[in-house]
Amino acid sequence: MAKFMDVHHGMKDITAHQLREAHAADLAIQDQEGVSFEHAWADPASGDVFCLSEAPSADAVRRIHERAGHAADEIHPVPLIV
User: How do residues 23-51 score in pLDDT, each as one tens digit?
Assistant: First the structure.
């Protein structure tokens, strides 16, 4: 499976609690698409949230985020990790 980094814009002032809730919503349904969300990071000042996942495709990641209620604005393959 491939790794993906997705980005959500417009989540200015997100709190740690809200980030945990959003991540939990993804985790609750990730198996429906064979996705494994590994980590989520947020920059409350800019409103950007980043998620690292392993998935069969970017479309699978997109569908899970949409169903969880927070569509990703960008999804990037991550072919190299050190």
Answer: 999 999 999 999 999 999 999 999 999 99
CATH code of the domain covering residue 61: 3.30.70.3090
pTM assigned to the model: 0.94
Pairs from 51-59 (Cβ < 8 Å, separation ≥ 24): 51/5, 51/6, 51/8, 51/23, 51/26, 52/3, 52/4, 52/5, 52/78, 53/3, 53/4, 53/6, 54/1, 54/2, 54/3, 54/4, 55/1, 55/2, 55/4, 56/1, 56/2, 57/2, 58/4
Range of the domain at 69: 2-77
Percentage of residues in the chain having pLDDT higher than 70: 100
Q: Is position 11 within any domain?
A: yes
82, part of any domain: no
